[in-house]
Amino acid sequence: xxxxxxxxxxxxxxxxxxxxxxxxxxxxxxxxxxxxxxxxxxxxxxxxxxxxxxxxxxxxxxxxxxxxxxxxxxxxxxxxxxxxxxxxxxxxxxxxxxxxxxxxxxxxxxxxxxxxxxxxxxxxxxxxxxxxxxxxxxxxxxxxxxxxxxxxxxxxxxxxxxxxxxxxxxxxxxxxxxxxxxxxxxxxxxxxxxxxxxxxxxxxxxxxxxxxxxxxxxxxxxxxxxxxxxxxxxxxxxxxxxxxxxxxxxxxxxxxxxxxxxxxxxxxxxxxxxxxxxxxxxxxxxxxxxxxxxxxxxxxxxxxxxxxxxxxxxxxxxxxxxxxxxxxxxxxxxxxxxxxxxxxxxxxxxxxxxxxxxxxxxxxxxxxxxxxxxxxxxx
Length: 379
Description:
Blueprint (H helix, E strand, L loop, with lengths): L6 E14 L2 E5 L6 H12 L4 H13 L9 E7 L2 E7 L2 E7 L2 E6 L7 E5 L3 E8 L16 E11 L6 H5 L11 H4 L3 H8 L27 E4 L11 H4 L36 E4 L4 E3 L4 E4 L6 H4 L4 E4 L10 E6 L2 E6 L7 E3 L5 E4 L5 E2 L5 E4 L2 E6 L2
Parallel strand pairs: 13-14
Antiparallel strand pairs: 1-2, 1-9, 2-3, 3-4, 4-7, 5-6, 5-8, 8-9, 10-18, 11-12, 11-21, 13-15, 15-16, 16-19, 17-18, 17-20, 20-21
Helix pairs in contact: 1-2
Organism: Nocardia stercoris
Protein name: FHA domain-containing protein
InterPro entries: FHA_dom (IPR000253), SMAD_FHA_dom_sf (IPR008984)
């Protein structure tokens, strides 16, 4: 059976559209990060799991120290479906049997990533302000980089390349040859449950109990009102030593052989609400998160098993807290930080400091890290 190829229609425009194998990238404008992004896409296209490799490569390319805001959209096959990755004012319109839905990179402070598991007819990448784009008639980008103002991906390549490349075999047939080509490290990672970022913290959901009121350590500072307010001045620092980075950092090494599967990058499905900040930032609760001053160093983020939430504050540790979503229950766990992580019910006068284990964050409850407050809101 011949390996089917996706069709990439290119729309007119001043941006860039690139294709390497089955990995597709749209850049609305050229930037100093363009070469790094295209290099990451090219390297990912040759990997056993292009989506997983793309995420790992782009972490360094996008967050590697450039002060410029990088805007791009990318599509890649991965374990379980098609990875959609959006950063900044770029949107993806997904059309399938269930209808059409639109994803936007502006919904996330870092980037929005989602695995499309349902069969789709086509996926369109365009500027967020553009409702639709039209591909140049008969255009079909096979490889390379061309000018363009968006793209339309038809016949997207789905996950298991082994199934796409090999016909169905009868019982007793020789094992799939493509599977043997995968690195041993990747097979071992796929066969065992994802490793936790640190070995001294319990599982984000293990033993989670409803905090009503939560069992916790010392009380934080008092607040009144319909929703707990962020502390200010010296009160915010009363529980926070000046140097939170005495806490050991998680491992920095990536496995050279291959990244972990992206199947657990996000818990795809209807989000169980959002974490919303006072600045308007919003994070859909359909995946685990790592919160901190530098969460990209956390192994779960680097393995694409969690998404980062960056909070820039000197009293916030590099890896400060973790958010987990399991069977509709949202839990938060402090990462053993000096400053601590606090939660409070709506209208509560006191913040409760978390202990060693995870605690549930019910709808309308808030969590506080230093002076930053995020509230669990139901959509």
